[in-house]
Write a structure and sequence with these properties.
InterPro entries: Aquaporin-like, MIP, MIP/Aquaporin, MIP_CS. This protein has 248 residues and is mainly α. Helices cover 67% and strands 0% of the residues. It is built from 11 helices and no strands. Helix 2 packs antiparallel against helix 8 (172-187), helix 4 crosses helix 9 (197-209) and helix 6 (129-152) runs antiparallel to helix 8 (172-187). The radius of gyration is 17 Å and the shape is globular.
């Protein structure tokens, strides 16, 4: 059940998140040119809705960086990690395919190949790989640190955070969505804030495979950055939270 939940949760995340980008970037969409605030808020709400939907079943990691970060501090059994990640990547791919179908009439009328790729995956505004890598590390560290902090406000000090319990109801999922909204507003400008390997790699594969008119390349030379950097950032965020004594 936990793997199904991670698949469904990541699919919801990607459907609503990549969906808001499609609405803003693709031609003849009613949301066309809605701007960065629309995109960041849409992604924040995408995260919140995904967490509300599947949090009680798997803790709604919906992000390999979160999964690996939690495993690095002993909050997730290591044997579950490969299944979590596989489900997340598959969910990211599936959600992106649904976005393609939802906007089926808009690909052909959109001339900008970069905008089409931008619906599915991230790219830096200024291409400087070390700096881009650092931005993604910082953003993901803030994400995981913040998620653990939200959890610590619910559980008594010294008690292990039960994400499945925490993210099944109440305001916590909304707070996580607002955290993602804040990260997007504050740190998303340089790279588009992937902060999630499944959110970037799954849809990028979908972009490569789908018959999108005039789509151009999938920018595989950059694709490793939004995979590796968030994992590094996730571990740093989790370790920092624990080392500072916030984990009890």
């Amino acid at each position: 059940m936990v793997y199904i939940a991670e698949f469904v949760g990541t699919a919801i995340l990607t459907l609503l998140g990549c969906g808001v980008v499609a609405g803003v970037l693709l031609a003849k969409s009613k949301a066309h040119a809605g701007g960065w605030i629309v995109i960041t808020f849409g992604w924040g709400m995408a995260v919140a809705m995904a967490v509300y939907t599947v949090g009680q079943y798997s803790g709604a990691h919906i992000n390999p960086a979160v999964t690996i970060g939690l495993a690095s501090i002993g909050d997730l059994d290591l044997k579950l990690v490969p299944g979590y990640i596989a489900a997340q990547l598959a969910g990211g791919f599936f959600g992106a395919v649904l976005v393609y179908l939802a906007y089926i009439n808009h690909w052909k009328v959109t001339d900008d190949a970069g905008a089409k790729l931008g619906v599915f995956s991230t790219a830096p505004e200024v291409r400087n790989i070390p700096a881009n890598f650092g931005t993604e590390v910082i953003g993901t560290a803030m994400l995981v640190f913040g998620v653990l902090g939200i959890g610590s406000n619910v559980n008594p000090v010294g008690k292990e955070t039960d994400l499945a319990l925490l993210f099944s109801s109440g305001i916590a999922p909304l707070l996580v969505g607002l955290l993602v909204f804040a990260i997007g507003l504050s740190l998303g400008g340089p790279t588009g804030y992937a902060i999630n390997p499944a959110r970037d790699l799954g849809p990028r594969i979908a972009h490569a495979l789908l018959p999108i008119p005039g789509k151009g390349g999938s920018d595989w030379s950059y694709a490793w950055v939004p995979v590796v950097a968030p994992i590094v950032g996730g571990v740093i965020g989790a370790q920092a939270f624990t080392l500072l004594g916030f984990g009890g």
